[in-house]
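Revision sheet: structure tokens.
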Amino acid sequence: MTGSGTPPASPPPTPPSGDGGQTGPSGHDPAPARRDQHRPPTPSLLDDLVDGVVPEAADPDRRRRNRKVLIRLSWTVLAALVALVATKGADWLTSEHDARVTSEADDKADRAGPAFSASVRLNTQYPEARIFDAPFSPQDKKTLLAMQPKGDPLTPFYAAHHARAVSFTDVHHPAMKVASPGYSEEWLMDLLSDRKASLVITDLRIKGLTCTPAKAATVISVRGQAGGSYEGMLFDLARSPSTPLITGDEEQHYGEPFFKYKKIDLGNGAAPEGLRVQVTSGTQDCSWKAFETHYVDANGEHTQDITNNGKDFTVHGLSSHPQQAFEVRSYGPFVHECKILGGGRLGC
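Predicted:
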């Protein structure tokens, strides 16, 4: 008899042969590999950049995409260059225009107002003679002839009789060929221009001239008082009020028209110009409104008047029939009476 008990366990079933139901040598499932074959590739950083910056260039075909990107970049660069050139060109044109406008404004401001300033003063520092409207009375004549060279007796005498200081060195010089040799009066002019542009004075004329017969009938000259001829110009009103003549002992063209050989440069930093102007009127008393200057600058020829601080200029001549003449000397009698010769000439 057999004993009762639990039957033995059956062995596990043997898997079927072949590949069915097996995972392969590695034990991995092949299904994921098959699924990866159909998954789209992961976008690269360049793809993301193109999609974000140039979305219209996105294309599955990378060659087409790159070509689109290149074209887009080329147009962008070209547009930037055009914009840069346009901006720079506009800036250049604007700056040129602004510079031109500024220059024109500066030029206009520079030309505004008088071209130069002129200070004028009558020079009585070294007179060679004095003229008087009326002859001296017998008592005045006696007082004058009795004077001695002590102290300064003449100055108060001149003042009491309203003497007018005059000169004669240039007027009496043969080279001047003065029509009626008499006496001259002299003005000193200081000319200054603060203009940036240069200008040249090419002519000087007497403007608004009127004359009458001279009143002065008496003259006192001082022998040896002549200070010589100074560089400048002389107007002989009996000959021409528009042609000043050259003065100056050392001048090569002494007695010839001043502006034929000389000019006066002002502006553009030029130093102030000093001018000595003599006027002789022979046997007439004359007055005029101004000295009219003609000057040239970059804009052509212009005129400007030099006035006498609101007053007329005046010059006094000696009558064609003088009544008295005296000469002060450093020897013999201090004051000597002269003879009146024919034609108004004086014999001292």
